[in-house]
Design a protein that fits this description.
This protein is α+β, with helices and mostly antiparallel strands and 240 residues long. The chain is 24% helix and 23% strand.
Length: 240
C-alpha cells in the first residue's frame, strides 16, 4: 500500500487543486441514481466483521452498513486518496468502491495475489445502489481534461498520482476534493491489469465522508459470499 512520504508535496498539491476546484476547473461526472456499485470486504476483518448468515436467512443491514462506513481519516490505513495529511490540513475518510465488475476482479487479484478466477475466495461482495444523483470529480485518463488538470497541479502527473509507494500527490488531490463543498467523491480508472485484456480495467469510485460516519445516499441490497467453490452464496440484506 502507498505511504504518505512527502507531506510538503501533499500541501502544495492540495492548495493548487483546491484553487482549481473552487474555480470549477476540474472534470466532473454525475453518478446517476440507481447505479450499481460493488465493494469487496473481508467478512472477518477488524472493520468489516460480517459473518455469513445461515442458509435461508438474510444479512443484517446493520452489519452491512457498518462494513461500508469508512474507517480511515484520523487513522492512516494506507488508502491513496483519503486519510490524514501529515500536517494541518483536515483529514477525510473514503469509501472505496468499483463501478464495474472487471475492476472488482482486477483489484481483488492485485491485493490477494491469487489468480483472477479465485481472487474473491474468502471475500464478501456488497452490491450497493446509489440513491439520487451525485457529482464527483472525474480523473480517469479517458477523460481528456483529467491529464491537463494534473499537469497544472504543482507539476503533478498521472504516474505520481497512482505511485504504488507514495500517496502524497493522490492524497493531496483527494483531500481537496473531499473539502470542496460540492463534490462527493472521485472517479478514477483502476491501474490493476486484467487477465483478459490490458484495456479491460474499469473505474474505482471513492466517496468521501467523516470518520466513523456512514456515506449518505447508499443502499445495500445484496451480499455475495465467495468460498472455495465456483458458485457463490447470495443473501439479501434487510433489517433484523
Amino acid at each position: 500500500m502507498p505511504a504518505l512520504k512527502r507531506p510538503e508535496v501533499l500541501s502544495a498539491v492540495y492548495a493548487a487543486a483546491g484553487g482549481k476546484i473552487a474555480a470549477r476547473d476540474i472534470p466532473t461526472l454525475f453518478v446517476q441514481g440507481g447505479q450499481t456499485l460493488y465493494r469487496s470486504v473481508n467478512p472477518a476483518g477488524t472493520y468489516t466483521s460480517m459473518p455469513k448468515p445461515n442458509p435461508g436467512r438474510h444479512l443484517s443491514k446493520f452489519a452491512a452498513n457498518a462494513a461500508i462506513t469508512p474507517a480511515d481519516g484520523v487513522l492512516d490505513l494506507g488508502n491513496r486518496f483519503s486519510g490524514p495529511s501529515g500536517g494541518s490540513i483536515p483529514h477525510a475518510s473514503g469509501l472505496y468502491c468499483v463501478q464495474q465488475q472487471q475492476a472488482l476482479i482486477n483489484e481483488s487479484a492485485h491485493y490477494s495475489g491469487k489468480a483472477h478466477a479465485w481472487s474473491l475466495s474468502g471475500r464478501c461482495v456488497l452490491r450497493i445502489r446509489v440513491m439520487g444523483s451525485i457529482l464527483v470529480a472525474d480523473l480517469s485518463p479517458h477523460n481528456p481534461r483529467a491529464l491537463r488538470f494534473l499537469r497544472e497541479l504543482h507539476g503533478a502527473s498521472w504516474d505520481q498520482m497512482v505511485d504504488p509507494n507514495d500517496c502524497s500527490v493522490g492524497r493531496g488531490i483527494g483531500l481537496a476534493i473531499a473539502h470542496s463543498g460540492y463534490l462527493r467523491g472521485l472517479s478514477i480508472q483502476t491501474v490493476r491489469e486484467s487477465d483478459r485484456s490490458i484495456d479491460e480495467n474499469g473505474d474505482n469510485l471513492v466517496l468521501f465522508g467523516s470518520p466513523g460516519q456512514p456515506i449518505p445516499g447508499l443502499y445495500i441490497d445484496q451480499a455475495i459470499y465467495f468460498g472455495k467453490t465456483a458458485v457463490p452464496e447470495i443473501f439479501s440484506v434487510a433489517f433484523p
